[in-house]
Amino acid sequence: MGRTREFDRDDVLDRAGEMFWRLGYEVVTVEDLELATGVGRGSLYNAFGDKETLFLGALDRYVATYGAAPFRHLRGRDVGRGIRLMLDAIVARMNDPTKPRGCLLTNSSLATGTGSKRIDAKVMTRVGAMEAALETAIARARDDGQIPTDADPKQLARFYCAVVQSLGVTHKALGEAAALRDIVTVAMRSWPARHRRSAADRTPSSARQSRSRGRGGS
Q1: Alpha-carbon dihedral of residues 186, 127, 69, 74, nearest 10 degrees?
Q2: pLDDT band for position 194 (cuts 50, 70, 90)
Q3: CB-count exposure of residue 114 (10 Å: 0-12, 13-18, 19+)
Q4: pTM for the whole thing?
């Protein structure tokens, strides 16, 4: 009997994941996967069952390799700074020319026609986990007095989760790091930090008093 070919499972998932990331689930063929992984279809089927299961494994591997690290910044005490560092880390990863454009998770969420309820459910679960991590951190920021007590952690979490997704969409379409940095800059202006003051509050009191006397006349 012939020996079953041995291979590194994580390496196969990395190589298959990059192929799915670059081309999309529907476009990738078994022949593409054989070429990318260096593993024959028989061994792929024996190890993973089918293309769908291989994709799901590759998506989990992608999240563990690329998706989880930026969110670790949310563990710091200053949650606003953690969100900024999280977004900066995502931009830095997208600025790596050796990687495909966009984000495998975002690309998959936008794809149509996969016909897979398992893939749809997996993507929803992963996006939901991102939102939950953000909500937990933002709730902590509110409890610590970093943001106003009337700030809604769920609303803010959904907003910043959408920002993360928008980075993937913009990078997939344009491939421009400058555009991503602009998105991050504007997004962080929406962070409701307690120390921010209105334009009137930032105006020196002497200047406000001078304007007030001018309006009253003398």
Answers
A1: 60
A2: confident
A3: middle
A4: 0.82
